[in-house]
Design brief:
Layout: E1 18-27, E2 31-39, E3 44-49, H1 55-66, H2 74-84, H3 93-114, H4 118-122, E4 129-136, E5 143-145, E6 148-150, H5 159-171, E7 176-180, H6 198-215, E8 220-224, H7 231-240, E9 248-250, H8 258-266, E10 272-274, H9 282-289, E11 295-296, H10 300-303, H11 306-318, H12 331-343, E12 350-352, E13 371-372, E14 375-377, H13 390-395
Parallel strand pairs: 4-7, 4-12, 7-8, 8-9, 9-10, 10-11
Antiparallel strand pairs: 1-2, 2-3, 4-14, 5-6, 13-14
Pfam family, one: MR_MLE_N
Protein name: Gluconate dehydratase
InterPro entries: DgoD-like, Enolase-like_C_sf, Enolase-like_N, Enolase_C-like, Mandel_Rmase/mucon_lact_enz_CS, Mandelate_racemase_C, Mandelate_racemase_N_dom
Length: 398
Amino acid sequence: MRDYGNHASRSADRTVEITDIDVRVVAGNFEWNLITIETDAGITGIGEAYRGGGVPEIVEYTKRFLIGENPLDPERIVRRIVQEMSGHGGTTGKVVTAASGIEVALWDLAGKILGVPVYELLGSKYRDEVRIYCDCHAGEAYELEDGATAYADADAYSPEAYAREAARVRDLGFSALKFDLDLPSDTHPDRTNGRLTNDAIEEKRRIVAAVRDEIGHDVDLAFDCHWDYSVESAKRLAHALEPYDLMWLEDPIPPENMGAQIEVTRDTRTPIATGENRFQVHELSELIDEHGVDVITPDPTTVGGLAETIRVADRAEEEYMPISPHNVCSPVGTMACVHLGAVIPNFDLLEYHALEVDWWDDLHTRSEPLIRDGTIAVPEEPGLGIELDDDVVEAHLL
C-alpha cells in the first residue's frame, strides 16, 4: 500500500502538528458539517464538508491516523485519507466528502500559519470579487426534513409565484437567479418513469417565460431539475426552453449514465449543467472531455476539496468550459469557494442557497454581510478570512 504519511521535513518554525479534529453539525436549511482542526501551534482551522449524515463519524475515524500530521500538507493528507480508507469505499462517496471538509480546514490552517489568504496558496489571483447566483424558491418549492422531499401545495408553483420571487431577489442586488423546475405534476400520470406529459412541459415553459418576462435579459437565469427525467423528456424540455436564453438547465437526467448525458447536451442549444454528485476528477473527466456538459458544477465540499476542484477546472479550461461550483454551505464552505473563484480563470458564478436562513451571516464574526450587491469580495486576511461565532454555532446545533 502506498504510504502518504508525513516523511518530509520542514524548518522548525513550520513543523506543526494536528492535535485534534472535531465536527459540529449545524441545522441550517441543510445540515452543515463544520469541521475544526486544532494544532500544537495554538492555531485553529475551520472547514466544511457537504451536508448530511455519516460525515462526522468518518471525520472522527480519521483522527486515528491524522493526529500528529503537519497541516501544511492539505493535498498529501487528502491522499492519505483516501488511501487509509480505500477499503471503506474511500475513493468516492462520504469518505471523499469528509476529506473535502478536512482539506478546507487544512488550507485555512496553512494560510494562518504562513500569514497569507488561501487563494495565495492555491495559485494566481484573477479577480477581486466573485459573482453569486441566488438559488430561489417560489413559495416553498420543496422542504427538506431528514433528507426527504415534500412538495408544497400546487399554488406555490404558479408562474406568478415564480415571477414575484424573481423580482424580490433581483431587488436584493442579485444579477443571477436559479429556481427549481421539478414540480408535483412531474409524477402524473406515473410516479416513477421520469416521463413528462405535454402539459407538464408546457407548465414549466410558462414558469420560465413568466420569470424571464419579469426580470428581463439583464438578469441571468437558470433552472434545476434534480435528475428527474428520462432522456426524451429532458430533450423535449430543453427544446421548449430554448427561446428563453437560460444560463443553464441543471441536472435534467439521472447522473450515472454518461452516454445519456452526452445525448441530452448535444441535442439542444439550451446549456446543460451537471457535476455536483461526482467525486474526484476521475468521475468528471469523461463528462468534460466528451462535452457531455456545457457548464461543470462540482461541489468543492464533496468532490475532494479545493485542490481537487482546481484539477476539475483545469480539465474544463482545456475544453473551453466554464465552472460554476455547487454550494449549499454555511459561510465557511462559501468562503472556501470564493478563494477558488479568485484563482480559477474559467470560474463563472458561485451558488448561494441560504436566502431563507436569516441568521446565515450571524455564523461569522465579520461586521458586514458577506454578500453585497450580488458578489462576495475575495478576503485578504490569512486563511479563509472568516471566523465562526461559536455562540451562534452552539445555538443552532442539530
